[in-house]
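the two lines:
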Amino acid sequence: MLSRLKTALRALLRRTLVERELDEELRHHIEQQIEQNVRLGMSPEEARDAARKAFGGVEQAKERSRDARGLRWIEELWQDLRYGLRMLRRKPGFTAAAVISLALGIGANSTVFTFLNAILIRPLPYPEPERIVNLWERASGSTGTNPVLPLNFVEWRDRARSFEAITLTQSFPLNAATQEGAEQLSNLSVTSEFFRVFGVAPALGRAFTAEETKAGGDRGVIIISYDFWQRRFAGDPGVIGKTLLFGSSQQTRPVIGVMPAGFRLPSLTPDVYTLMSLDRNNPNSIGGRSFVCYGRLKPNVGLASAQAEMSVIASQLSNQYPADKGWDVSVFGLQQHLVNEARSTLPILMSVTAMVLLIACANLAGLLMTNGVGRRNELAVRAALGASRSRIVRQLVVESFLLSAIGGAAGLLLGVWSARLLLFLSKDAVTFGRMDEVSPDLNVLGFTLAISALTALLFGLPPAWRISRMDLQTILKGYGRGSAGDQSHNRFRGVLIIGEVALAVILLAGAGLLLRSFSHLLQVSLGFQPEQTLTMRLFLSGNEERRASLADQITQKVETLPSVRAAGIIHTLPTSGFNSGTGFYFDGEPEPEPSKLLNTEFSVISQGYFAAMGIPLLQGRPFGPQDRRGGLRAVIVNQAFLKKYFPQGDAIGRRIVVVTVNKAPTEIVGVVGDVRYNRMTAEPQPTVFLLHSQTPRYISYLVVRSTADPMTLTSAIRREIQEIDKTQAIAAIKTMEQYLSESVARPRLYAILLAVFAGLALLLAIIGLYGLMAYTVSQRTHEIGIRMALGCLRRDIFKLVVGRGLTLALVGMSVGVVGALALTRALTGLLFGVKPTDPVTFAGVLSLIALVSLLACYLPARRATKVDPMIALRNE
Amino acid sequence: MARKKKTDMLQGMLDLLILRSLRGGPLNGWDIMQRIQIVSGDVFRVIPGSLYPALHRLEAGGLVKAEWGASDNNRRAKFYKMTAAGKKQLDAEWETWKRFSGAVELILRDA
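prediction for all of em together
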């Protein structure tokens, strides 16, 4: 009813006016009655009394009028809110403690949820992203993902029916000429189906066509990214047709398209896209198993059936081609592949934050309960004045909702802020692939609101219910103190504290384990010297001769710089823990089948490499001028290789045939120490080092050892290189120490995270313990006074209070230890050199908690000893 | 509009009396109480504690409209006027009452 609503609104918004009108109206009635009475002959006083009696209860009439207005509950709710706010303001300590507890608990959860949101819930920014997949090759019997052979891609494209389109891609840098010299661009080489797979089309210009991908097509065309367009061409709309000059081949390539703003692959942001030329008749001419394949599933095809079909095709190919023997195919959803990593760690994170929230809520419940008990008198009076039980409960529930709302808002803000902090800290650490999409949004808001509301209901309702059931008579007459209700209230709070301490133990144990694990990690010996070593990436082009001589010229020139001690090249920095693998066999034996080759990793290096990295030579000699191009190929092996394949230690002078080196025999000339390029790798693998000038590569990393801060050398090195070849650019400039730091960034992040949350948990638990102790002491001053009067020493009082607190803490610790022993098993995957039940960690945690609990009890205990028995006894 | 249950009969009767008194023009609460008492020959004496809640309910329901004005002795008072909806309700209530009282009379007479 519209008029009902209008009346209710008016009553709400102009309350004083409405009240005044009501008062005036009733008063007018009474005055009329008085007048009538006077006219009937009564004296003024008689008239007044009679009038009042005739009217009956004025307040009751007013109240019933107010009820009759309808929609009273809105007014009452408003009243409750205002009253609640006033109450919160009057008790700043209580409010602060509750809000802080909630904010910390909810903030922790909303932080982690913000991440979950970005990674799992918000879809990738492509059309129907759930249909985009990765196809990998997989060696039968292993679970790894392996890059793809172009021949297989062509076969898959012909045979598979599950895909709308599949595309082959490869990422490698290109040197592009600039005004000042050259710039190294990140490039993605793709077949023409790429655009169909990702459902994207260039915002300007056009995409590659199928014609162009075929052998013989015009392959010189490029498409540039939006950011590159802005950077290089200043967003010029006439960019189509403009050219870029590439590398030593002096090839000018016209731009035919610009990708839309913000388009990128999950773990790559290419500056340019080039056309992959795939010759159907000889696909492997462009390379071996080093390509990445993406596909888009047909509308009605699921991941499982696509995988089934591809496995069948894989076995067909395995029978048909010797190169495919023993290879299978894996199909992974694009999103899932990114998320596998997150899946193992986020559940742990979420349970940790859930525990922190639990502790915060336990504090809140305790606070609400105590607060309610303290207001017994006030509530009893309200009940006596006619407030129904439901009204009182409603009042208390509204108050706890208010607290939750304020705490939730604070928690959300805290969550936003700490998510940003977390993002900053974890830049190096976690390659979830979409870290830059981490920002809170409606999902997060909804989540925090939900948690806040749930907390309010779960923990506001029980105390409210208990309070409303207390016998009002008893309360008003003051008999309520020390009653059974009080006892159970204190016991309940004690139980809460025990629970909090237990949870804190579990979290601290986890944090301790991760911290110890991390410190062990830092002590792993590396086998080389990472200090003052700079690395950068080069893209060498041209034929073998040219590449070999370029590499040598560059290293020699760089070595002439004043603060450079040594410079060398390696074809790929195995700092991520992965290296290139190949097979070999002993010279003189017949060449075995591919699957029977002996396994080894390999690196292609230049002479100065070992010196630049500080790797010691153990036997034989290093590469030298006698190892020329065209001469007998020399190789150096590492100690792991020696131990595995030459257990007698007699490798020098022996010959092996390394499959990747055109099957020419090579002679082992030296043995170097084992190296762990990052602290996370398990054992150093057998490795063969080939000489770059004998087997030149395209991509190489320059390693420079300097006597000073390596980063200061960057421009000097760039100048030297440009003097040799104007079109040569450098990129990915980083020190070895940076790589090392990145490699442990993930364990470091987890350790820090868990330590922060555990610290939060401990803080909350200690606040809870302190609060309970302080409250208990203040409630029992009377009892303390009696004890003192009867001869108890202050020292004993002190011990009594501390004893009570420590007992709670000890029980909590026992429960916590049991729980921790059970739960830390979940961390095994993240631990390094530490058992989940490590006694040192547990001992440390328990001592810490005992100490901190002692501190928490200290102040209340001291206050207890300061009680003056005379005053205490008199007050009751 | 509120549904009429058997328990609302008394409340409905009061509403009826109030609306009927307003048929002649706007009145304040005191006047309404007087009029009902006088017209019913002192049979019905409306308690103020019931009258004013009823008036406010009618006002909230849109059956009467209130305006502040001066009473006969120049005091400020709240005057109630019947609205069109109120008129309709009055007629409907009257019909219901006639049926009700008619039925009661039938039963009593029959016995």
